[in-house]
Amino acid sequence: MEKLIETRELYTDFNTFEGVVKALNGVSVVVNEGETYGLVGESGCGKSVTVRSMMRIVQAPGRIVDGKVVIFFRAEDRSRGIDILRRSETYMTSLRGDSISMIFQEASTSLNPVLSIGYQVGESFRFHRRTQMLEETIQELEAELSGSLFFLARGWKRTQRGLFRRELSVLKAYEADIDRIDHELYALEDKTDRDSLRRKALLNRRRDRLREKSGLAELAKRFPFLSFYQRRLDRTITRHVVELLRSLGVANPERIVDGYPHELSGGMQQRIVIAIALACHPVLLIADEPTSNLDVTIQAQIIDLIKSLKESIISSVLFITHDLGLVAEVCDRASVMYAGDIAETAEVRELFRNPLHPYAQGLLRSVPKVEQVGELETIPGSVPNLIDPPSGCRFHPRCPHRMEVCPQRKPPLIEHSEGHWVACYLYTDGEQ
Length: 432
Ligand code: SF4
Description:
Blueprint (H helix, E strand, L loop, with lengths): L2 E13 L4 E13 L3 E5 L6 H8 L7 E10 L10 E2 L5 H7 L4 E4 L3 H4 L6 H12 L1 H18 L3 H38 L5 H20 L2 H5 L5 H22 L5 H4 L9 H13 L5 E5 L7 H17 L3 E6 L2 H7 L2 E6 L2 E7 H6 L4 H8 L48 E4 L2 E3 L10
Parallel strand pairs: 3-8, 3-9, 6-7, 7-8
Antiparallel strand pairs: 1-2, 1-4, 4-5, 9-10, 10-12, 11-12
Helix pairs in contact: 4-9, 4-11, 5-6, 5-9, 6-7, 11-12
This protein binds iron/sulfur cluster.
The site of iron/sulfur cluster has 14 residues, from loops.
């Protein structure tokens, strides 16, 4: 399987008044093409911070302090990839919502209460599929032109078509420039000499300026009939939004597009959030606890929907959850996180049959079973304070197998058997 995205030794801190919260402690994960990958662990273990770091949307006072986030699907050389932590913010803007999308935990807080559903779902088309929307609008105008008999109406449609054609050619020229800059940035990526660094900074600035120029506000200034222009483009976008909502099982999408989030149920709001994430057919969908706060039947519907979408339009899914049952049901591979560290990574069957890390073993023992009699097992102790985390292996204060080396050095993540990785000295004899 080819890699899609990878984090390498990622460290993210939060500077708070109490001290520095070391939320990620060298997290290395890989999501492959075509798989559903799960990131599982207790609340506060760093799952959401990991994916926010991957998308570079860690909010202040958070900061990525070290490591790499490498994407492979946009790289000219797939074995090398592109480290997106070194790319400009506008590069990330072109990536987010287009190639990588995210469904956040709470649908109700992800949606803007004062914008219509149609506008919010349509934003991805407006921003990332602008060329396609313009081309389709031009085609529609051409069809209307050939069917129009009146001289004045034909003239007006010709004027409209001219405006859209002009915007399209401007946009294509900008995109060609951006491609050229990306190509040059890629060639310079690994170079660290002074001239190359200066050139990279210059190219990133130039790219930012081009992206701004190709934005709607800048282009709209050139057109005298802005309201008409926007209405006409919105008509094309709305058609796509309605098709998308219908394909996601939203009843009566023609009416829903004019509605607002508060008019919808929790399950329907989550479908709208999924629609926003899927508008551009991302290669990676990140689902951050997508079913929290939904009742059980709606949870099942949303999970089934994501599973079926994975089969049809998304290449890979990264699932964040603390629900091991969900991991068993939907994921191909999974990593168990503990206090900002990856404890274990394996295929889901292998992870459930043969957990290696003492924390993963404890977690699996604490899952209620149908034949369960008596009290559930728990892991003694509690999750550490990450302002002053335990030294060495962060699990050592709670670990029943603690050894002398455990508090001294962080255990490396080693491949214990094919595809089964674990970070624990029990499997290295405490030697590494
Ligand atoms: Fe336990 Fe040591 Fe393994 Fe950590 S490294 S899980 S403390 S045995």
